[in-house]
Amino acid sequence: MKKIKLLLLSGFLGAGKTTLMLSAANHLRSKGLNVACVTNDQGQQLVDSKMVQHKQFPILEINGGCFCCRFEDLTDEINQIISENEPDVIIAEAVGSCTDIVATVIKPLKAFHGNRLQLAPLTVVVDPRRLGEMYQQTTNFAEEITYVFRKQLEEAQCLVLNKVDLMEEDDIAYLRKQLNKDFTGIPCVTLSAIKDDGASNWLNQVLHVSNSVDKSLIIDYDIYAQGEAKLGWLNTSMELYGNIKDAQSLVNTIMLELIKRFKEIDAEIAHLKLWAEDEKRSIKLSAVRNLDIPIFFDIHSNNWDSNKLELLINARINAETDHLKQIVEDTIHLVHKEFNLEVIIKEFDCFKPSRPVPTYRMA
Ligand SMILES: Nc1nc2c(ncn2[C@@H]2O[C@H](COP(=O)(O)OP(=O)(O)OP(=O)(O)O)[C@@H](O)[C@H]2O)c(=O)[nH]1
Ligand SMILES: [Mg+2]
């Protein structure tokens, strides 16, 4: 039986996993291969899934916990996508606050499903600015979050230093040197996942290589759980009704307002994503640091007026949930008043990820 290739992406929130997954999926599709994508989150209402659907790839979503804690869901869903879409390659993105994937996902997949899945080396995507902050000890994140970031790097079987377009060559050379020193023997690919064909270097590195590493991470689950619990997680979806003259500018205003308010309480943004759509168009904005201005527009849509807009907000912030909730609620209220829009909240979920309890852990 021909095995289906499974490429697993890990790496911290905002590092560029979804961007790389979509770039790789596009590349493979252009070569005539069937690709399916897997998104994963602690909550529901995911901007990432909207992105995958927008690019028209088959998608499966594992909600309400990471792959390791929802291992049976992951394998059930993989079975389903295989029978419905017959993919040649599946690309799966783990939750950005998750680690210990070799022991809790890769090894169990190899043990129980190795006859039909060919697992590639575990790839960890890195934002070089976050990596620089770790080395220079200038991060604004709680120590326990940096612990998780570091553990993600430690279990990489392939490192992707992404977003090189944002960096000076010297800085990239310095970071590569540090990675080579700290993670000797681990291949490190530098690329820009947002550029056309940015993923091809990575695919060359992992697509035809089977996962052969059996070393599991040494990790303290108490600190890991504390690190995850330092992050406030908020997913909300709503409908906005009224005379929306310029949807892009409206969504931009919401984004800037949220960033301003998080800065005011010194709450570091890990990833703040907004998605807006009506029946014809959609737009996505992301900020992955408090310093992130201007914001990335992943899907452009200029001069866009509408009477009804659906809006998703996904926020992962180093903040207490009551602060996070208050800031998002206040911002929505401001939109209602300043833009004279009726706002109907469909879902509103704000929480801290609970302690990871993997279904399997193979040391
Ligand atoms: N300049 C630049 N921006 C990038 C690159 N890759 C990703 N980004 C941007 O970084 C932001 C985060 O990218 P995502 O792909 O959503 O990151 P992620 O790792 O999937 O984030 P989570 O799902 O929250 O863990 C988006 O605004 C992307 O457009 C890159 O190579 N260069
Ligand atoms: Mg993502």
TrEMBL record:
Domain CobW/HypB/UreG nucleotide-binding: 7-180
CC annotations in GO: cytoplasm
Annotated transmembrane regions: none
InterPro entries, per the entry: CobW/HypB/UreG_nucleotide-bd, P-loop_NTPase, Zinc-reg_GTPase_activator
Highest taxon in the source lineage: Bacteria
Region forming the signal peptide: none
Cross-referenced Gene3D superfamilies: P-loop containing nucleotide triphosphate hydrolases
Name of the protein in question: Cobalamin biosynthesis protein
